[in-house]
Amino acid sequence: MRIRLPWIGASGPVALLAAVALTAACSTTVPGQSVPSRSIAAGPTSAAPSATPAGGEPNAALHKYYSQSVSWGSCAAFAQTDGFQDVPGRLQCGSVTVPIDYSNPSAGDATLAVTRLVAQGTRQGSLLVNPGGPGGSGVQLVGGSAANWSKLAVNQTFDMVGWDPRGVGASTPQVRCYSDAQMDANRELTLSDDNTPEGIVKQEQFNKENADLCAQKMGDTFLAHVGTADTVKDLDVLRSVLGDKKLNYIGFSYGTFIGAIYAQEFPGNIRAMVLDGAVDPSEDPSKSNVRQMAGFQTVFDDYAKACAKVAGCPLGNDPSKAVDVYHHLVWPLIDKPVPASPGRPLSYQDASTATIQAMYSPNLWNALTTGLVELKQGIGTTLQKLADMYEGRDANGHYSGMMDAFTATNCVDNPPITDPAVLGRLDTEIRRVAPFNDDGRGTGRAARSACAFWPVKNTLSPHTITAAPNLSKVVVVSTTHDPATPYANGVSLAKQLNAALITFEGSQHTATFEGNDCVDGSVTRYFQSLTVPPAGLRCSG
To answer: Read out DSSP for 405-417?
Structure first.
């Protein structure tokens, strides 16, 4: 039973990972998936505006990083999927060098992949964007959203800039623990369905092997510096290299955690910051897991109610019985997977993953319905494609590496849960609050995750962010029925940062730049003129 799910914004799984086309069999259109072109026109080459880093740098040893130039050009080498959208002359890519260890720059460098959608009008600066994860690619987000984002008012005055955080996507080194074939094989395993004492031993052995494999391939030094504590330092380097004295930033989902820690470490370097789909940095990981899964149950219930209104709904026309019907459909997969794509069966784990993926956005609900109808017929094709979308697998069988980066980042961002009693209670509570995701095989026991065996210690722990006196007004956007980052998270983060809160009423993960005039208009005015949204603003979906 997998917990601690990736916090990827709606712009993330819908646009970022939608290169895994759901085919005509799925009667849903996913923004960003319909443009297959990888031909990106090269833009002009530009450099940092001066030899003096904008805003200064923490110490002289970092001067070469803060004062470097970016040679902007073609994105052909940066596109990890076919989802890049051709915006001739305006979508450009480059790279930025950062130290692996900021306390010891001589220990080696990492390279960050960066892309920008150039402002169409009078430029105010750069707007850096992170899609979440951990492990989400900002390069893919901006490239995959370029055609749509070029129509946004905010792109009239700001370059939209995405980057692949250290260890992610086109950045090097990339965290990569498993081969594509190993990833496919791992998804077919049923270890997590056996919670007997013997089964727990097998799960923990597998998780330990995973940790050891990552350590062998990546080395302890890089793994120790792949977390958010170093990513926020990279973000400040990017701010300077792009020529901005003050940062303009929007973070989706896990990207809100990056933003919150940046606000803690560099409060005086922020001009405007929007955090949509909040991760609460003060919340204990156990409580976060429970609250997150309760959020997914809420949206599953919303989906069941919507499905019940349609003839032929595979969950039936009584939403109160939807969980039981869903179990009747998916539980048999534990012992007997069904055919999906050639050579790949649909496992119970993948069916659960597909359902989780569909909860991120109503745009995917029709695809889930199609997949469950197929499952009744013994076919797993569409559900497997939804699971592939979540796992970052493209049509050619190549994985983005997002899940490896997700594990590596979480293991250094959070203290591991190692107490068997705590793990058992957590598993029981998660099954209670999210019955749709219960495999019916709980025993009050649960295995320690790979983080319990990780070769390096965590560098962050849950803590409350205290807004510094020189912190500019931040804006938090929180959705009432957000599955991955529940509404209460946004309320808490807004309070910690003394931020303005925009409430979006809907059943999806994140809301900004998704076409809601109330949210998008408020965010755009904030970035362009620093007009803070009115207190208590609520936007209807």
So the answer is: HHHHHHHHHS---
| Burial annotation 87-118 (CB, 10 A radius, 16+ → b, else e) | beebbbbbbbebbbbbeebeeeebebbbbbbb
Domains along the chain with CATH numbers: 60-165+232-279+465-540 (3.40.50.1820), 176-225+283-462 (no CATH)
Question: Cα–Cα distances in Å, from 344 out to 32, 183, 193, 393, 394?
Answer: 26, 12, 20, 13, 14
Active site residue 193: no
4-58 pLDDT, tens digit per residue, is: 455 554 443 333 333 333 332 333 222 222 222 222 222 333 333 333 456 667 7
- Marked catalytic residue, from 482, 492, 507, 520: 482
Q: Is 95 helix (H, G, I), strand (E, B) or coil?
A: strand
DSSP secondary structure string for all residues of 190-231: -GGG--SHHHHHHHHHHHHHHHHHHHHHH-HHHHHT-SHHHH
Nearest to 400 by CA among 140, 188, 39: 140
Indicate if 253 belongs to the active site. yes
Phi first, then psi: give them for residue 227, nearest 5 degrees.
-90, -175
Q: Over the stretch 96-126, which tens digit does the pLDDT of each residue have?
A: 999 999 999 999 999 999 999 999 999 999 9
The residue annotated as part of the active site, out of 192, 240, 253, 478, is: 253
